[in-house]
């Protein structure tokens, strides 16, 4: 099983739609969880960390389910500017480097 | 703050040539990383440095060497470039080291990347 798995998409949604991505990870001892955003031909940028209690930042909500070993990202009221690739990122074990998923592409259309 | 900077932004090499990619961060981070990104492969870790004076191999270290020159700078060297090394290279840094593990120390910040083509 791959360490971090994501549906590559693309997810095609109209402006204003709500879209959700899931990501599964293989190591139950994983410590930290993140969503990064990467625009075409640009560097990855931190979108948000994911905490056990779930957390929200404006239109974005992230959830962590340790029992099922997945994290999710919900985007409400999608904007054209949300079009990007979203990377699921996990610290697979204590004192380790991060493991990046291959990303889920989101395309928001007018 | 500039964050993480990389030079050059673009480079074209011929097979067998050598070059060094430079990376610097001004966030007083302990840990630095070099990744390559290829279509369909995602980000792959080449080398990392958990703290000044240490370096370790990542997932794809063959054909590369690194130097942690000081706390700010981490360079990646291709001694004899091959077409398989055509890629986008990203440098990153994090607060680290791995004494503690959590979002505040693990979050990585990336430079703008170097697009390398080897002919």
Write down the overall geometry of chain A: globular
Q: List low-pLDDT spans of chain B.
A: none
Integer-rounded radius of gyration of chain A: 13 Å
Helical/strand content category of chain A: mainly beta
**Unreliable stretches covering 5 or more consecutive residues of chain A:** none
Percentage of residues in DSSP E strands of chain B: over 45%
Average pLDDT, all residues of chain A: 92
The percent range for helix content of chain A is: under 10%
- The secondary-structure element order of chain A is EEEEEEEEEEE
Averaged pLDDT of chain B, please?
92
Please give the number of β-strands of chain B. 11
- Describe the oligomeric state of these chains in a short phrase: heterodimer
Tell me the major beta sheet of chain B. Answer: 7 strands, mixed
Rounded to the nearest angstrom, the distance between the terminal CA atoms of chain A is 38 Å
Summarize the entry for a quick read:
The complex is a heterodimer of chains A (110) and B (119). Chain A is mostly beta strands. Chain A is built from no helices and eleven strands.
Walk me through the structure.
The complex is a heterodimer of chains A (110) and B (119). Chain A has no helices and eleven strands. In chain A, a hairpin with a 7-residue loop joins strand 9 and strand 10. Chain A starts with a strand and ends with a strand. Chain A has 110 residues and is mainly β. By secondary structure, chain B is mainly β. Chain B has one helix and eleven strands, in the order βββββββββαββ. The chains are: A mainly beta (110), B mainly beta (119). Chains A and B meet through strand 5 of A and strand 5 and strand 10 of B.
Walk me through the topology:
The complex is a heterodimer of chains A (110) and B (119).
Chain A: E1 4-6, E2 11-14, E3 19-25, E4 32-38, E5 44-49, E6 55-57, E7 60-65, E8 70-75, E9 84-91, E10 99-100, E11 104-109
Parallel strand pairs in A: 2-11
Antiparallel strand pairs in A: 1-3, 3-8, 4-5, 4-9, 6-7, 7-8, 9-10, 9-11
Chain B: E1 4-7, E2 10-13, E3 19-25, E4 31-38, E5 42-49, E6 56-57, E7 64-68, E8 74-78, E9 87-94, H1 103-106, E10 109-110, E11 114-118
Parallel strand pairs in B: 2-11
Antiparallel strand pairs in B: 1-3, 3-8, 4-5, 4-9, 5-6, 7-8, 9-10, 9-11
